Amino acid sequence: MHKEIKVGEVSRRQNESVRPFVVSISKKLARDDPKQKKFDDFVLNMWACNRSTLDIVNFLQFKELIESCDSAINVKSRQAMTNKLEQEVTCKIIPELCKELNDVTSGTLSLDLWTSHRKDGILGVKFHFIDDNFEIQQRTVAIREVNEKHDAVILKKYVEKVIEDIGLSEKVSPV
Length: 175
Prior knowledge:
zinc; metal-binding; nucleus; 4 helices; 3-stranded antiparallel sheet
């Protein structure tokens, strides 16, 4: 017995796949191929900008969609894309942020601590400052997982580490 799935006007059986309808090219794009890089960057942007689930790259339907568009594109695993995102943050985003904040003379921090659906503690840290045009600016300087007790001593440790990592030691003013 097969369960029928309907999407708009289109229906198909669960155990069927679009793969038979796609002309398959066994050769995948190289890691440094511009088309592959553009696809990977699109997926990272989709995660970051649309708050899409990180697991989307593991969904069969997503892989079939990409296969039907271009079978040469390699859909990387969630872990591979997470590693790429971490590398991007470490090697590009954080250095650019530190460079941008280098000329800021002072500012203040705001913190937000919450628990995810998976029961992970998440700490968000923003730095607020006034730019050369006298406009209020804010930058998210850190998002950290805090799977320890949420008390003042623990949070202080995390915030001090963020201040040190971003180079804000001489710039943070109390409110």
